[in-house]
Design goal:
Rossmann fold, three-stranded mixed beta sheet, 287 residues, 11% strand
Length: 287
């Protein structure tokens, strides 16, 4: 079991919740209590971790976390998610989804996430019906509304509820409450699935996902914390914050050698810097 010092830096000042956030927290707990028995669609990100924590604190054995293990989830992310669940004390089940077998997903259309979440939530509802869970809940918060998120459409169609959104919690609220509750990933950067590194229309294959995962692990070992390796066949386009360009250039030869060994021929640094969801830039002006 990790201590508080291990979970949060020792020099992080304790900050109490504001009355407004305290009210939202209590609202989330009431919503969860009213559901009585839930499955949490768990990913290991801060949003779903907070939902899992509140579900367990409120419902105890009537809360079950389920995480989908697929080629689009990095092995490190799966291990860390399971470690956090053990820290919380909640049961988490690993299920294996096979979205790559779905040609609708593998073709990598702009609504790829719709098919991924459809497979996941259909699977979760099978578990719910067999084991008597009343609701499926996810970590969608208020700031997620309005973004291009086809996966949310799949969730809505299947009656998945979002307690954080229902309670009016923003992403900042989530991080502040997660920090207050001593969750170790309270300040973890957003980490989309590996398939998001491939431009729309480029088929999603296990080989491409494996190469991206290995390339991003190289960046992590070099000390970068916020990054993406965008996969363009034989070209790797690295996105990091502009402030960290000097660090990347200092390791230029190492980066090139490592990524070429993985299978890339060309290694580039995106001069626009890190942008979450930059693959969606091609959608601007469409529709």
């Amino acid at each position: 079991m990790w201590s508080r010092v291990e979970l949060l830096d020792a020099d992080v000042e304790y900050v109490p919740l504001s009355p407004a956030l305290q009210e939202k927290w209590e609202r989330v707990q009431r919503i969860m209590s009213e559901m009585e028995r839930v499955i949490v669609a768990y990913s290991g990100g801060v949003d779903s971790t907070l939902v899992l924590k509140v579900a367990y604190d409120t419902l105890r054995e009537n809360a079950l976390g389920v995480i989908s293990d697929s080629p689009s989830l990095p092995r490190r992310e799966l291990r860390e998610a399971l470690d956090i669940a053990r820290l919380i004390g909640v049961r988490v089940r690993v299920v294996h989804t096979h979205e790559l077998d779905d040609p609708n997903y593998a073709a990598n259309p702009t609504n790829r996430c719709y098919f991924c979440k459809s497979h996941l939530h259909d699977h979760l509802w099978e578990i719910a019906r067999e084991e008597g869970y009343k609701y499926i809940v996810d970590g969608t918060n208020l700031d997620d509304i309005g973004d291009f998120r086809p996966g949310q459409e799949a969730a809505r169609e299947r009656g998945v509820r979002s307690p954080l959104r229902e309670a009016g919690m923003t992403k900042q609220d989530v991080r502040l409450l997660a920090r207050y509750l001593v969750l170790p990933n309270w300040n973890k950067p957003a980490m989309a699935c590996l398939s998001s590194r491939l431009p729309y229309g480029i088929p999603v294959t296990q080989e491409a996902l494996r190469r991206v995962e290995q390339a991003e692990e190289v960046l992590r070992r070099l000390g970068f914390t916020q990054f993406r390796v965008r996969h363009h066949d034989t070209l790797a386009r690295i996105e990091i914050p502009v402030s960290e360009f000097p660090q990347a250039l200092a390791h230029r030869e190492h980066l090139v050698a490592e990524l070429r060994a993985i299978g890339y021929i060309y290694v580039t640094l995106d001069l626009q810097g890190f942008r979450s969801g930059s693959s969606n830039e091609v959608l601007k002006g469409k529709g």
